[in-house]
Design brief:
By secondary structure, this protein is α+β, with helices and mostly antiparallel strands. 24% of the residues lie in helices and 27% in strands. It is built from 4 helices and 9 strands; from the N terminus they run E-E-E-E-E-H-E-H-E-H-E-E-H. Strands 5-7-6-8-9 form a 5-stranded mixed β-sheet.
Length: 169
Amino acid sequence: MASSTSLSPSHFTLTRAHPRATSSHLRFKLISSSISFPLKNWSFKLRNAPPLTLKALSAREPKAAAVTKDTWEKSILKSDTPVLVEFYASWCGPCRMVHRIIDELAGQYAGRLSCFVLNTDNDLPIAEDYEIKAVPVVLLFKNGEKRESVVGTMPKDFYIAAIERVLKS
């Protein structure tokens, strides 16, 4: 049987925040033995609260490994399986959307396709070798040769169609 902790009314306090505090996002932070929830113009606190274990719900391990100029030849050009490489930049918003799709595809095609990401800001010479002028770009390789490319942010079906063509070739 699981144990639970109840909070009594003495754990709670409500205070008025600075009039210019306009954050409408609900955030929390641990301050010694209290938890503070800043709200728009108000602050909600738990005093002498029991210890809590906080779990980040948005953090996840990427399924597509990073590749660099040092690992490019071994990971991409000499791979026994077809390879997908997403060329991205850390400042690129659309690249973040493509990252999620590539991570899903990496799980979906595990064992049949290797998925990697390459930061073009850090490894510009490789991006230049493949004439990457803008990001995001996804290239598919088989037997060390570029077979397909998807430029820009596209629906997942575009990536799946390109992968299936490479796998069938």
